[in-house]
Amino acid sequence: MKEKRKGMLLVISGPSGAGKGTLVDRLLKKDPSFCFSVSVTTRGKRKNEVEDVHYHFISEEEYDKLLDADAFLEHASVHGHRYGTLKSEVYERMERGQNVLLDIDPQGARAVMAKEPDCVSVFILPPSYGDLKVRLHTRNTEQQEEIERRLGNAKAEIAQMNRYRYLIVNDDLDLAFEQLQAVVRAEKQNSIRYFPEIGE
Ligand code: ADP
Ligand code: 5GP
Predict the structure, then answer these.
(1) CA distances from 65 to 61, 62, 70, 72, 182 (A)
(2) What is the CA radius of gyration of the chain?
């Protein structure tokens, strides 16, 4: 049997510290049909981050040039820094049948959902605000002030969860990952992107 597939655009969003990056890393390791859309950002690189793997780290001037060139599928100011998804990270790959994964904030997710209504949107929730706080402190990648800013934004972000096609509460990580895989498995069979050609 022959089959054709259109690429899936998987949009993962949720408050900082909910576990998006952790789930995204697992999915990318487990499922080679996905590639990660590397965003550009004007924020500084963290110690554990790799240029062009986690982000393209760019200056404010470079960001302005990309804006002028209409290079973004979406872009937003998040927690005081600018971030954007490059069209070049997304469309060519999808046309080749590859699945593309975005880890972006709720403003960006909303813009992508409007432009690409067939995208698969998943919102990751923490089990509680207390857990979110503990996770951001445990991750230890931001200063106290930046952690407070991210926690302060979480309520408004979570208020938008019903805009998403799927919700996953990341309490037990293995269970949350199983649920993410279930979404992916089902959406791969969605008739908008799966075209099996059965024989005579
Ligand atoms: P995000 O990308 O949403 O900001 P991360 O994936 O960086 O969040 O996770 C934030 C912190 O929480 C990390 O230190 C991560 O190891 C931890 N974490 C992720 N999922 C869980 C979970 N289910 N239970 C406990 N800690 C978790
Ligand atoms: P962090 O600084 O922790 O890597 O990311 C902060 C927030 O920015 C997260 O919610 C992350 O999903 C979001 N983000 C990362 N890349 C992009 C992007 O290209 N566009 C938008 N809108 N948000 C992004």
Answers:
(1) 6, 5, 9, 11, 40
(2) 17
Element (H, E) at 11: strand 9-13
Helix (H, G, I), strand (E, B) or coil at 86: strand
Give φ, ψ of 101 to 5 degrees: -110, 130
- What tokens appear for 97 in the block? 């049948």
Q: Does ligand 1 come within 6 angstroms of the Cβ of 108? A: no
Return d(Cα 3, Cα 10) in angstroms, integer.
21
Q: Whose CA is nearest to atom 1 of ligand 2?
A: 16
Q: Is 20 in the pocket of ligand 1 (CB under 6 A)?
A: yes
Cβ–Cβ under 8 Å, residues 105 and 160:
no
Quick one: fold of 2-191? Rossmann fold (3.40.50)
Closest ligand 1 atom to 23 CA:
6
**Domain map (residue ranges) of the chain:** 2-191
Q: What is the pLDDT of residues 22-73, one digit of tens each?
A: 999 999 999 999 999 999 999 999 988 999 999 999 999 999 999 999 999 9
Gap from CA of 137 to ligand 1 centroid (Å): 10
Whether residue 166 contacts residue 10, with contact meaning beta carbons closer than 8 Å, is answered with no
Distance, in Å, from the CA atom of 9 to the CA atom of 120, rounded to the nearest integer, reads 6
Residue whose C-alpha is closest to residue 101's, from 92, 114, 90: 90
Is residue 80 scored above 90 in pLDDT? Answer: no
Pairing state between β 39-41 and 81-86: antiparallel
